Amino acid sequence: MSSKLVGVGVGPGDPELVTVKGVGALREADVVVVPVMDSGERGRAEATVLHYVPGDKVVRVVFALNERSDRTRREAAWDAAGERVAELLRQHASVAFATIGDPNVYSTFTYLAQTIAELVPGTVVSTVPGITAMQDLAARSGAVLTEGTEPLTLVPVTAGAAVLKDALAGPGTVVAYKFGRQAHEVAEALRETGRLADAVWGSALGLPEESVRPAAELDETPLPYLSTLIAPARREGGRGGKL
User: Fold this and answer.
1) For residues 99 and 108, is the Cβ–Cβ distance under 8 A?
2) Beta-sheet pairing, 228-231 with 200-203
3) 233 close to 147: Cβ distance less than 8 angstroms
4) In a 10 Å sphere around its CB, with 0-12 CB exposed, 13-18 middle and 19+ buried, how is residue 183 labelled?
5) 118-151, pLDDT tens digit by residue?
6) How far is the C-alpha of 211 from the C-alpha of 68, rounded, in Å?
7) Do residues 128 and 101 make contact, with C-beta atoms less than 8 angstroms apart?
8) Using CA atoms, how far apart are residues 91 and 85, in angstroms rounded to an integer?
9) What gap in Å lies between CA 150 and CA 160, rounded to an integer?
């Protein structure tokens, strides 16, 4: 029998936003892997998972989650993490990997699945979708993501603020992920493109330290790495104007 690896999206932080199917996948798995930056850390994914499964079922695996400058170190960390999960798959029939947000949206699970395909051929890989930070921020702030024929552009600001500025110059709503370390540059891009007034940002959504604020309040103060921004489309013409 082939082992099963399932990536489970556990949402942006609020344990009530894990789907029924996601809870079922976590409980059905023999082991639940949670990614951390060091073995002593309890990350956001683990904190969410522990609402639904006992701690003795959870295994922390270290990933270079924020490593971008040193490719050698990043590749070595991915290899080591893959080996650890491969070891678990050789011991258990099913392993779940809990990832914040959705496993198919800028998730570490993508790289893990590629590694496992090489290390444990025949492993059946699947995913359970999760609620994303942009959906949660839209709900908490009242920002509408899309109407009618509007496009929606999602940009990781780790690619640079210039990429965000190009997106803001176009039509439709723009969502920026992981912009906390470049908050000042993001505010400038919003201002230069005339998109500042309606934009909103949020961090730690669903957690006690949650912050949801207008983008007009952004300054040079660094924000949490996983901050999310929504710049809604320009909307004229009243109800149904974009149909």
Assistant:
1) yes
2) antiparallel
3) yes
4) buried
5) 999 999 999 999 999 999 999 999 999 999 889 9
6) 26
7) no
8) 10
9) 24
In 3D space, the residue among 3, 219, 195 whose CA is nearest the CA of residue 116 turns out to be 3
Exposed e or buried b per residue across 195-230, where buried means at least 16 C-beta atoms within 10 angstroms of its C-beta: bbebbbbbbbbbeeeeebeebeebeeeebbebbbbb
CB-count burial class (<10 Å; 0-12, 13-18, 19+) for 14: middle
Residue 130 corresponds to which tokens in the numbers above?
Answer: 């999760």
- Residue with structure tokens 């949670």? 34
What predicted TM-score, i.e. pTM, was given to this entire model?
0.90
Per-residue pLDDT tens for 163-192? Answer: 999 999 998 999 999 988 888 899 999 999
Tokens 């505010």 locate to: 187
Taking the C-alpha atoms of residue 67 and residue 130, their distance in angstroms, rounded to an integer, is 24
Rounded to whole angstroms, the Cα distance separating 161 from 184 reads 10
| Side-by-side strand order, sheet with 228-231 | 152-156, 173-177, 228-231, 200-203, 211-214
* Measured CA distances, 224 to 5, 146, 165, 204, 205 (Å): 30, 26, 21, 8, 11
Among 5, 3, 44, residue whose Cα is nearest residue 127: 5
Q: Report how far apart, in Å, the C-alpha atoms of 86 and of each of 51, 79, 111, 162, 243 are.
A: 26, 10, 13, 39, 49
Name which of 133, 146, 71 is nearest 105 in CA terms: 133
Asked if residue 180 lies in contact with residue 203, where contact means CB atoms within 8 angstroms, the answer is yes
